[in-house]
Fold this protein.
Amino acid sequence: MHEPVDLAATLASFDEAWSPRTVAVLNDYDVRVVKARGEFTKHRHPDTDELFVVLTGSLTIRLDDADVTLGPGRLYVVPRGVEHQPISPDGAEVLLVEPSTTVNTGDTPGGLTTERQVI
Amino acid sequence: MHEPVDLAATLASFDEAWSPRTVAVLNDYDVRVVKARGEFTKHRHPDTDELFVVLTGSLTIRLDDADVTLGPGRLYVVPRGVEHQPISPDGAEVLLVEPSTTVNTGDTPGGLTTERQVI
């Protein structure tokens, strides 16, 4: 009990890309870590904003009208309903905060859709 | 528009301890940064959990039955209603996520209570 989460150790414990792990719960929100590598599905979350905080590497969030590129220590909130495609040619480790019911591929289920994984 | 938040630059823009700045909004939650230095007020948030992610330095969250000490890249969620006292003898920079209505000193208003500051 009272054990803090070590983000680097958690991220070192798995290798799968685009497969978020829930490391903590804040009310009805999840705090998740994910490894980004290559291109993710273009999708929307119709009912929620989504917070991205880059921990290592570089993540680009491709929007209809712009690319938002985040390095370590940069964060961005994708507003609800806004189509976005996370991409990371060279890899990134990312902290996400979003409602616990949020599915990674939002309104666009497919091969990269994952179940909620709490560790 | 579409400008990411640079956490280090934001933290370099002010020096006041225990005075959270809201850097982004996620639904009805705030993403805040705060400089911890010395001892904060012992308090509770009766209605919400509170997420602490340490960015730099070392933060101890003193609970009734334990001290939780967080270095960079460590996170901890203080459950709603749990009395806690953040302390940082040598200073820390911390990311917080909590409902936008959350007051920093919770149920224990005093000299360190601040208004919500959105930057």
